[in-house]
Amino acid sequence: MPICDDNEKPYVGKTFKSIEEPWKFYKDYGYASGFDVRKGSSKKGKSGQIIYRHFVCIREGIHHGVNDESSGMQSKTKKRRRKPSSRNGCKARMIVTVHNESEYIVSSFTKAHNHKLISLECRHLMKYNRNVDASHQMIMLKCAKANIGPMRAFRVFKELVGSYEDIGCTSNYFKNLSYQMNSYPDGSDAQLLLDRLITKRDLEDGFRCEYLLDDCQKVKSIFWSDGIGLQNFSIFGEGVSFDATYTMNKYNMIFAPFTRKDNHGGCVTFAVGLLSREDVSSYSWILKQFVECMGRNPTMLITDQDPALKIAVEKVMPNTRHRFCMWHIMMKVAQKLPISLRDNAELTSGLYEVAWLEFDEPADFEEKWFEVINDYGLDDHSWFSDMFSLRKYWIPAFFRDLPMSGLFRTTSMSESENSFFHKFLNHNSNLASFYIHFESAMQAQRHSYKQLCMADQTTTPHIETHAPIEQHASRIYTKKIFLEVQVEIKEAFDRCRIKSMDTGDEVHKYVVDDRSNGIFFVTHNMLEDTIICSCKKFVKIGLVCRHMFVVMRNVGLKAIPQKYIVDRWLKDAGASAISSGGTKAHNRPLFSEAFRCISIAEGNEALTASLLSELKRWADANETPTMTPATAKERMFETFYGSKLPTEITVHPLTR
Fold first, then answer.
1. Residues 144, 175: one domain?
2. What separation, in Å, do the N-terminal and C-terminal C-alpha atoms of the chain show?
3. 242 and 378 inside one domain
4. What are the C-alpha distances in Å from 281 to residues 12, 213, 232, 291, 654?
5. Domain for residue 369, yes or no?
6. How are beta strands 507-514 and 103-110 bridged, if at all?
7. Residue 557 CA: distances (Å) to CA of 174, 512, 533
8. How far apart, in whole angstroms, are the C-alpha atoms of residue 473 and residue 35?
9. 513 in a structural domain
10. Domain closes at, from 552, 571, 590
11. Is residue 316 assigned to a domain?
12. H runs (alpha helix) in 527-642
């Protein structure tokens, strides 16, 4: 028997002015007593007015399962989830009938329930308290854009409103809303994505996109890049790392970014592709799009050891040096060795040392390779023979004369890039939401770049030697690059010495003893004002080596010569890209203003009370919803995807 205040109890003869009033009254009564309610049967008159309506306990009626013989339906072919039913035949109800044409009167009231009522500590979980509004949808929308799942979004909302009792819904609502959002563009997500890319291509300078369809008008491949990506390629695009191994969408299309190091040593993304297959045709198409978009071939392209990709690079980029990732090759060494040699640490160490040496010429590598291979009887081993035949694709000795080839010998930059994108992308995304998350990732990447630039503009690195040339380096290079140059300057002072010097009229030849790495030869052409070292570090990464610094100190240089300052490492190397990526002035978003008000009032009881009072006053004055829940939800989905669903679909996603 429900227990509540007398003024909250229904009684026969109680009147209401409209049919909505008894519904609200019975809901309030149910909450005060500890049971949820629902609308039962009703009947309308000839005029369309409701003559009577039943308001019942939510546990009214009996649920017939799909395998219950009394239901007249038996399903043995499809398994269904065994979900408990809330209905148990409760007879509690309130019946209202029309009275005096414009009023309604309680004509019948059954008070007793046949079940236990909900306790006070659990009443916040009743359906009565599930007041889902735009705030729930807005939080879900913002979290979805940041690739925050529904359960985390639910916990974020709890922290914002204060407690689970104040949320107004259960976690299932957030999960269902997330599912509905992902399912909203089913069948049209490929069209949504391409429409968005084409619109950006028409409106934004420098934005490029291309796509490829199969015979069934299903999207096979997509490529895109923006103006900042093009500018970054012109600055940092001597070589490119291309990795096509990750799938980050529900269609298992391969995510294929083109990546390189920027002047802070971090990842910079030039362009991105989505591929449906890993074959020669797909690779050739995307590489061709990249070259046409950027306007030139990169000097070097590093990839994993994919035979199809090797053929595509030779076909599309004949003037680009193709390099295999050394890590992918060297990690296979232990697996490829004969079982009897797999535990031989000396052999493994010898192979690693020979392969990774960066100061050897090709002939030196070949000599050392055969020495190790012959010592352990591996000269007839097929895998090692194959790797030796492909040595020009992965051994550092064969890239010593290629400018900037030393920036990477592995696809670790791509691995780092994929790890970064993994925070923003997920495997359940449709194509339209994938692009939304990708844009968030790119905004984060470029924001981090600006933070590093800001740090360079407002801080001064610590000087170790106080040599003028070190101070000059600290002024021109980014912090990350200066720390590398600083090590070379310190090593030149502490661990290198001129062992001998041959001075001619125009050319001075130095023999520099590097106690860390051996003997190196440095040539200083006085007439041409050039300094060349046999370690070739400047050629490989564009930074002066310690051996060249020894000679510069010997001839009294107080600054790095301009010809040995590579623009890509300078503090302002990416300035044009940054200015192009500046955000336009816009009104502060609603949440920003709300949080600003909260931060002003925080800690001040008077201001907090004033703000709360003002918010309540505004809410009470504007409480009438402008949209139905269904319309509001659809508007939310349209906001997330950036447009309404296309009326005509000519491009389809792949079949899952």
1. yes
2. 54
3. no
4. 79, 13, 27, 16, 17
5. yes
6. unpaired
7. 66, 17, 17
8. 75
9. yes
10. 571
11. yes
12. 537-541, 546-554, 575-580, 590-601, 605-621, 629-641
Residues 92 and 241 in one domain: no
Q: Are residues 200 and 233 both part of a single domain?
A: yes
Model-level pTM? 0.81
The alpha carbon dihedral of 5, 11, 15, 20 has a sign of positive
The more confident residue out of 558 and 67 is 558
**Nearest-angstrom CA–CA distance, 477 and 570:** 5
Residue by residue, DSSP assigns 494-517 as: HTEEEEEEEE-SSEEEEEEEETTT
211 bridge partner residues: 222
Six token digits for residue 109: 């009231």
Assess whether 414 and 344 both reside in one domain.
no
pLDDT over 50 at 273, yes or no: yes
- Report which of 235, 246, 225, 236 is spatially closest to residue 291, judged by C-alpha positions: 225
Rg of the chain's alpha carbons, rounded to an integer?
36
Q: Nearest-CA neighbor of 96 among 138, 54, 146, 128? A: 54
Kindly state whether residues 264 and 357 are assigned to the same domain. Answer: no
SS3 content of the chain, % helix, strand, coil (to 5): 45, 15, 35
Q: Binning pLDDT at 50, 70 and 90, where does residue 581 land?
A: very low
Domain that holds residue 276: 190-325+409-447
pLDDT at 162: 83
What number is the average pLDDT over the span 487-501? 95
- 318 and 229 in a common domain: yes
**Distance separating alpha carbons of residues 68 and 181, to the nearest angstrom:** 35
65 pLDDT band, cuts 50/70/90, is: low
| 552 assigned to some structural domain | yes
Number of domains, the chain? 5
* CA 643 from centre of chain: 22
**352 and 389, same domain (yes or no):** yes
